[in-house]
Amino acid sequence: MTVALFIPCYIDQLYPKVGIATLELLEKLGCDVVFPLGQTCCGQPMANSGFSGLTNGCNKNFIANFSGFDYIVAPSGSCVLHLKEHLQDDKNPEKAHQIKNSLFELTEFLTDIIKVDTLDARFPFKVGIHNSCHGQRGLNLASMTEKNTPSFSKPEQLLKMVGGIELSYPKRKDECCGFGGTFCVFEEAVSVKMGKDRITEHEANDIDYITAGDSSCLMHLEGILNRKGSPIKTIHIAEILNSSF
Amino acid sequence: MSSRNKILNAIAAHQPDQVAMPVIHHEQVITFENPFLQFKTIVESIGGKVVLVPTIQFIQSEIQNNKSASKYIINTVSELGDVPDNLNKLTAAALEKLDTVYIRATLGVAENGAVWVSESQMKNRLLPFICEHLVLIINQKDIVATMHQAYNKIDISTEGFGAFIAGPSKTADIEQSLVIGAHGAKNATIYIIE
Amino acid sequence: MNSKHAALSEKFIADEPRTNWHDETLWFVREKRDKATHGLPEWEQLREWASQIKNHTLSNLNAYLTEFEEKAKANGIKVHWAADAQEHNEIVHSIIKKNNIQKIVKSKSMLTEECHLNDYLQEKGLEVVDTDLGERIVQFRKEPPSHIVLPAIHLKKQDVSDTFHEHLNTEKGNNDPQYLTEAARQHLRSKFIEADLAITGVNFAIAETGGFVVCTNEGNADMGAHTAKVHIACMGFEKIIPKAEHLSVFLRILARSATGQAITTYSSHFHKPRPDQEMHLVIVDNGRSRQLGRADFKNSLKCIRCAACFNTCPVYRRSGGHSYHTTTAGPIGSILNPNLDMKTNADLPFASTLCGSCSNVCPVKIDIHEQLWKWRQEIVKEGYVSSDKKTAMKGMSYMFSNPALYRFVGIIGRWMMRNFPNLLKSKHNLWFKQREMPEAPKKSFRDWYIDHQK
Q1: Which residue numbers in chain A have pLDDT < 70?
Q2: Average pLDDT, whole number, for chain C?
Q3: What digits encode the pLDDT tens for the residues A186-195?
Q4: What CATH number labels B24-193?
Q5: Domain boundary residue among A113, A141, A157?
Q6: At B1, is the pLDDT very low, low, confident or very high (cuts 50, 70, 90)?
Q7: Domain finish residue from C286, C314, C336
């Protein structure tokens, strides 16, 4: 199975280890992974700021890099959601449509397409799960506390396959961390307060790591944790699923 | 052009495409094994009281006791004794010190503890609201499961006024602390006749 | 003073213990809502029915409004139409003048808040007494409500105690909610008894029967309406529903969503005035027909004002209603207010992380967070965005459209972060104000991948 890997821009630049873990994990599970070299950004930073009119270049570049693959996988629910909702090609709508249908967030790809039921991974630490909103509410990766529907979680399902891991949730299981793209600077005070509150609830569970499916949430939480000198570290779910302690 | 026509024209100009009216399937709605018990549990959880009596006459002694304690009582139920015929003339000033009012109501709703009271039952629209103690009387067989069945059984348009009343008046406007007895009745008792 | 959401919320959060209290108090309401809704197996189906009834109604508004008007008139209700807030206020004032009214009580009506009726009447020398406890508290304090269901939720009981001591002469320092509520009950009883006019809102107006329903827990709408010789009910035209049986759906979802109650204490159905009474109903547009014409935003008119989106919103809970500088705060306010004044309210659709919780709790399934996103696009299109932001976005767009440039900027950026970290540690860097910068690696993922392929 050939999988095209989409590594969002800020992961490419700031968290290459997340990209590496994703690639290694997919290869371990038998995928042929291809990384199209001309890829940049999904366009979300502009679109969420109201400038969707400025995303044509991103759309064009994404389509040029990712057309023709059966599967495209990215370790980010947020970027995947953006593309699924907004990727477009006015001249060639079929191409954008085909990409949207081939595109998967990493954990849903593992549970729904590869149907992983065991993992050769060990991570003997106490880990708090952060539900990233766009993956959870946008891509339906986990049931939501607001809704009266059966309970499930694709990320948790995978994490439970990891040896030695101890999982916990914060008291408010799926409250937003406050990153929110450019919200994190334009609404700095609320953004940081939301992050601090998530961290306080995770601290109550006496954990070693906070994990999530989106490095953007984790970057924000990491910034706050490091400022307060907390021993808690952040780690992308791909790194845990790919770990071997 | 009048504002009425201006508004209606603007709406017509912007009217969205037709969307069909949904069909509400009552069989998809919650049911209760024992509607009475559910009703009682809910009313008690919202600060009210439920008393099961074999016949309506059981309430008469309470009225007598209240009257002999010289409380200001109004009875609107002919089965319980004389009903004054000037009730709808009584003003708020006259009713300010009203202690207890007895009203025969139409039905109770198990899912939320609400009781439907129509204008002809309350005689004076103010009575169920201005009293300190509200006493409503319904038959046990008139407890329905949900609001869907309730609206099936009542016709809201035949009278000038009617209300669902669920327990005593309350507020949580100060720090979300629940306080019973805001502007309306401070106590609500529902007598249920077996 | 900067009166935009970001600045106002920064001020709110400066008192962190109070922010925590505000957040937890509203989260408690959200939890009560969860408990009430999760107890009903058909909850999601109810939302769907409510949503479809509202969609159907919006697509037949003219027919239902005219049917309602006809039936209401036949019931003896005098029906008025107001194109905007000004006309609404004038209509109310003309009824007051005609009846030579002196004493006015008002139960909660967000529409009259939207129209600033109290201020208007005050200028005419008329005093309106708000009778909802929360509204009376904020009225004494000359503050606007901070929440459409819980108007005084931003205040602590000690604040209420101080206010009541000043205005109602309650015992200094006594902050027992029971005691304070009783004081308000006594104070407002006298206002009810002497009232000539009661103004109420409308929760639902029923086309089929020409009547309307008002929901309260306190009983204040009824105390006023059944006492005064004149009753004026004010409604936005979107309050209309087709049939009486639809009330079953809406009364089942309203209180559960709002406060976690199965139903409000009083759901009062008004169809005719009392024999000695005049009953008026004012149907208001005030921008609603314009919103109806906005394909992306029309379904905001499905709103039943339960405020579930307020209570679940992580931003609202940590910034308070007043930071939204409008009558209706919270997520729903942020999609309604740009329609009324796009320039003044251009900041509001950005006061959200787009987490989507609001859309999930909405009992009539308004896609609130998606509309927030769409308003952002409109606001930028109309030019209500700073030129700095515009320049930055254009630069970013250009960079991401050119892979080679993106990689070059990446190399430079990471090199700078590693070698001159202090450059980023400036007060102009809002990220750095309360967060450390991420560590910049030497190689990007792409660099690693190319090496890895060799």
Answers
A1: none
A2: 96
A3: 999 999 999 9
A4: 3.40.50.10420
A5: A113
A6: confident
A7: C286
Nearest chain B residue to C209 by CA distance is B157
Is the complex ipTM higher than 0.90?
yes
Please state the domain count of chain C.
Answer: 2
User: DSSP of A169-190, one letter per residue?
Assistant: --SSTT---S-TTTHHHHTHHH
| Enclosing domain of residue A67 | 2-113
Whole-model pTM above 0.80? yes
Which of B15, B173, B177, B178 is the best substitution to test chain C (most C C-beta atoms within 10 A)? B173
Rounded distance, CA C282 to CA C235, Å?
6
Smallest CA-to-CA distance from C385 within A52, A176, A10, A55 is with A52
pLDDT score of C1:
54
Answer yes or no: is A118 within a domain: no
Give Cβ neighbours of residue B162 (< 8 Å, ≥ 6 apart).
B116, B117, B118, B119, B154, B156, C268, C269, C271
Chain B to chain C Cβ contacts (< 8 Å): 259
**Which of C286, C304, C335 is at the close of a domain?**
C286
Within-domain flag for A137: yes
All residues of chain A having their beta carbon less than 8 Å from the beta carbon of residue C394 are 54
Q: Which residues numbered 397-416 in C keep a CB inside 8 Å of some CB on A? A: 397-403, 406, 410, 413-414
- Which residues of chain C lie closer than 8 angstroms to A20, CB-CB? 445, 448
Q: Are C262 and C411 part of one and the same domain?
A: no
Q: Report domain extents, chain B.
A: 24-193
Please check whether residues A149 and A235 belong to one and the same domain.
yes
Q: What would the mean pLDDT of B161-176 be, rounded to a whole number?
A: 96
pLDDT of residue B76: 96
Helices (H) and strands (E) in chain A, counts: 14, 8
The span from the CA of A57 to the CA of C336, in Å, is 32
